[in-house]
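Practice problem: predict the structure.
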Amino acid sequence: MGKSRATAATAIMLTLASCATSVPPAPSPPAAFAIPIFYATNRNDTGAATLIARFGAEPSALSYGRVEIGIPADHRIGTIETTSSWNIVASDADESDFAIGPVTSLAPATLLTALDAEVAKTDYAPILVFIHGFNNGFEGTLRRTAQLAADLDWRGAVLAYAWPSRQAMFEFGADRSNAEASAAPLRVFLQMLANRRGGGPIDIVAHSMGSRVLLLALAGMPQPQRPFDEIVLAAPEISREEFLALAPRTIASARRVTLYASDGDLPLMLAAQLFGTPSAGDANGGPLLTPGIDSIDASAVSGDMLGHSYYGDSRAVLADLHQLLNNGLGPAQRFGLRPRDVGEGRYWELKP
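Answer:
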């Protein structure tokens, strides 16, 4: 009996020792990586050597290019890590920063060829186009585009459209004028993109005043059969009346249109006071509802202190965008959305 117990104890010890030696090694820490970002802009090219001064804040002819942006090894979802607001160009990429490499200008034909090559390389995954909002500079737009691509785990080509925002908090009126003047060049670019030889789906995410640029561009665009797949309007800065007037052409341009709004968006609340009418992205009094557009109430989620950049700062919104854009899921299929039925129809409340 004693011998049996000793034998059993020995077997257990050997088993435990075997288990201890078979524990897999700890995973390697994540490494920094770079994302290629294509761009189109109607900002004036100053010819300056530094990126912070390269593209100005005046409307100009379209120009195109490509740049690589480093994603830090310790990147956190919803964050754009920068060691300094002035650390704009880094040829020797700092792995703790969203470092921007040298800019390569491209002719329109070269841009399309490069995009087609990128699309083919990613098994014809959609192209993602990001259009920034009010108070944004060129370099900040590139960084935000890269952050969205990283946080959405985007497999396809990524493209930023930069219109000439003054990048100043109190230049709202000037930005609005430049946004409206940018609709025609954006229309030219989107037509070129939709008609390119390589084809394939195109998704568009427009934020704030960038939604104004996009809606006005689509309103004057010839209507082929739904040239775009997903259109996302995040915190759109455009009056509800203008939005409803432009909505039919927007709906006709895409397979699906999604609107994100919040009742805690301070810039849009200020705009309502300034212009006497609420914006489409202002959910005070309830989100805007119109047939053919999925309305998402993001009031419960947290983002930046102004409540305006939740589309890129909030993990909950980024997770919802991932399900929408990467998996093509409608609101009824996406985890984290709760239906709310009111007299005007149904909207979806995003849970934090």
